[in-house]
Amino acid sequence: MKTDIEIADATKLQPITAIAAKLGLTDDDIEQYGHDKAKISLPLRPSLLRSTKDKKHQLILVTAMSPTPAGEGKTTVLIGLADALNRLGHQATIAMREPSQGPVFGIKGGATGGGYSQVAPMGDINLHFTGDMHALSSANNTLAALIDNAVMRGNAHGLDPRRIIWKRVEDVNDRALRSIVTGLGGIMDGIPRQTGFDITAASELMAILCLTTDMADLKKRIGRIVVGYTSDKQPVTVSDLGFTDAIALLLKDAIKPNLVQSLEGTPALIHGGPFANIAHGCNSIRATRTAMQLSDYTVTEAGFGADLGAEKFLDITSRQLGAVPDAVVIVATVRSLKYNGGVSVSDLATENIDAVHKGLPNLVRHIRNIQRYGLPVCVALNHFVSDTSAEIDAVHAECEKLGVQAIVTDEWAHGGQGAEDLAREAVRLCDQPTHFHPLYSYSQSLEDKIATIAQTIYGARSVIYSAHARKQLALFASYGWDNLPVCIAKTQYSFTDDQHQLGAPSGFDFHIRELVPKIGAGFIVALAGSMMTMPGLPTHPAAEQMTISDRGVIRGLF
After folding, report:
1. Residue 194 — very low, low, confident or very high, per pLDDT cuts 50/70/90?
2. Is 412 a catalytic site residue?
């Protein structure tokens, strides 16, 4: 059996100019990065917008039940669904996130799909791609250097070195950098202070890149970034320090959406890569909006389970995008249900109907949560060869109780053909009326918004704050930050803040230890439990399996 990268390497890709032409774009509308990658120049030509005024502009959001170490194949389903829509005669475009080097070389692997349902060039996208991640890291760390220099050179704005909250980043899982001391060595080496690194996907600049509308908006958002506080706890921003344009110009190319293709030639806009467990977990609104302007159907994703990425898409991204999904697809697998039902990873290939029933409450809660938003929803049951008819029937029966269709998909083995039934259901749902209502009002207090998410989406009984977080709630309210949405950072494996509590627990206490202002991005991050913003590597990282031949042929990248 061929590996993902062998399948990708064996596929002859179309010139990126041909993919652009499918969207009505000419050579003047794109900036080519070789044969099979390009950036789209925005704004789109007015004549192009006029030619697309009669398009449906329908948006399909692909999310998932709570993920497991076995993997659910959400991105594989996303790509297969878009391919299937095109096979059925619709015009569909993919809008998804860029992979991060951290998971690629760590435990999760790449983020370009799998089997015959991939975006390509798979190797390039999973590695350096068009340089967006490097640009974000460079801009972030340039700002950090400018802040430290400003403090050492006189500190005209009274920024307290003990209250600087801006961290450096790198796009690698590196636990050794979570907590460090900088400025050691002498008077010309800076002022010693304790700080740390985040992974690039968790940086505020990543969130800004994904939520900004244009260069003017990018500059406004960068200027609003709070880098720290004075000794009397007054916020100091990038605009105060005078570095706004210097940071923005480092992102002048990174803010342009990237255009590639699926193995079946479906256009794919891949742009931005925030993690949904520690950030808002959605690709850029510039990419999604562009895809919607140029296509009848845009298929986009939200990271991890629906309690993370989908909640943040619907309560944060959608409001800034100016559109809500016409249909939602929740990806599940029999394997993930059995894992949530108490089965170990090593035993997931063995039939266990009882474990499926025990794990189904997890899927049911995700379905009900999406229904609370008033959106049409279906389940994509991503098929594995070990699934049995009895196990699949159990899923069908439970979904039918909720008035939801569960469609078996097999896009990994058959590409878009394996997702045609799902595509038909997605089109049907898009034609249904939506009655969308967000989970909370921005006018609610931060405490009320956090409680609403924890109790309504997670099933918590109450929210418990650390003493530090309690003080931050009062302080942030005094700054007028109460009217911002909340982005909760928690484990992706559980509805709780404890990754070991699987299934659909309820009546638990949800713990918030710290709040982080992301004023430029436009939300407040609430760190739950022991969630880290710099992941670590596993005992056996994926890097151990990677090879590159003398001729440059890569293997072990998945």
Report:
1. very high
2. yes
